[in-house]
Amino acid sequence: MPSPSLLLALAALVVSASATSYTGEFHNIFSGAGVGVPDAAVEDNSNYINLPSVAACQDWCVNSVPNCAFVNLYYEFWNPLFDFVYSEKSNLVCAAYKVVESVDMKTGYGGQTLYSQVGDTPAPTTYRTQSSGWALDKIDYTDTPAGYTKVFGPTNGANNAPGYMGYTALGSYDIAACAALCDARAPDSTGGYCAYFNIWRAVTSGSTSGFTCSFYYTAATAATAVNYGQGDLAVTLSRGYARSDTPAYTPPPPPAYSRRAVPRATPTLAPHGRRLRQAAIRPCAAASLDSRGLQKRGAGTLCIRS
Question: What does the UniProt keyword field contain (predicted)?
């Protein structure tokens, strides 16, 4: 196996020779550290391939990866899979993403021991270098969807604001799709139609774990973008957009209530079930009550104790 210094020199030649092949389609987001300087890859690299050049990586993103928006290229050495197993036999790793990553997502430095120790010499650990990021020019998050005005972003806080109407989980960071969902959302019975949406990315333990589009019937501001996540989940790439012409909403009229007949009073029955005349029932005079307050026997017509 070639020495690490020779591999690093060859890597520098490959990067310098091919980095400008796709200048019309990609632009550089962040550059890698110098040759021989340890560097970190974007940690969430579940979709990756080993390729011989930067141009090949960018071509793979454009033609083979659905919704590819960004690639992270880096060299990883002392990995036996790259050295002997994978058919590409390349130490250049190309990882593709559906969202443009920032330099602060470079957290994976390697450091795993993948070779077996031989004799008393400790086995080498993997290390990475020259980790750079490239975004497709067509993925421009500064563009605002038609019919909307950008309110804020990107920040690391999601809105926690009045007028919340619910959310939809997205498969990618798609601002246009989020706007279309807001347009089509059924009106809230209190506040009316969707007037604002907040799109953000969830990062869990350093890896992208989802994309959320939240809806509001009242436009929010950056002042309420104070939900930064919880535990290992962090809010990133949070942007807010207000609808320029929200349709007027007229709440439905309250349900009509029909007049209900007042039920007739149930007639009072005598002990043997005979109907009593209402006029015959009168308050009892004190003289007609015994010591217990009950009507005396033979006191005349039935009376009611007042």
Answer: Signal
Question: What tens digit of pLDDT does each residue of 164-199 get?
Answer: 999 999 988 889 999 999 999 999 999 999 999 999
The amino acid present at 78, given as its one-letter code, is W
Q: At what angle do helices 54-64 and 4-18 cross, to 10 degrees?
A: 60
**Is the overall model pTM greater than 0.70, yes or no?**
no
Domain spans of the chain, in order of start? 4-136, 148-243, 273-306
**Those residues with Cβ within 8 angstroms of residue 201's Cβ, 6 or more apart along the chain or in another chain:** 99, 173, 208, 210, 211, 212, 235, 236, 237, 238
> What span, in angstroms and rounded, lies between the C-alpha atoms of 92 and 74?
6
Q: Nearest-5° angle of CA 116, CA 119, CA 122? A: 55
**b/e sequence 173-188, b meaning 16+ C-beta within 10 Å:** bbbebbbebbbebebb
Measured CA to CA, the distance from residue 143 to residue 216 in angstroms comes to 21
Distance CA 169, CA 305 (A): 71
What residues does 239 pair with on adjacent strands?
Answer: 199
Extended strands (E) in the chain: 26-30, 41-42, 48-50, 70-77, 92-97, 106-108, 127-136, 148-155, 164-170, 196-204, 207-216, 229-230, 233-243, 282-283, 303-304
Structure-token match 């029955």, residue found: 269
Question: Could you tell me which of 183, 217, 209, 211 has the C-alpha nearest to residue 199?
Answer: 211
- d(Cα 196, Cα 193) in Å, to the nearest integer? 9
Q: Which ranges constitute the DSSP H helices of the chain? A: 4-18, 54-64, 80, 175-184
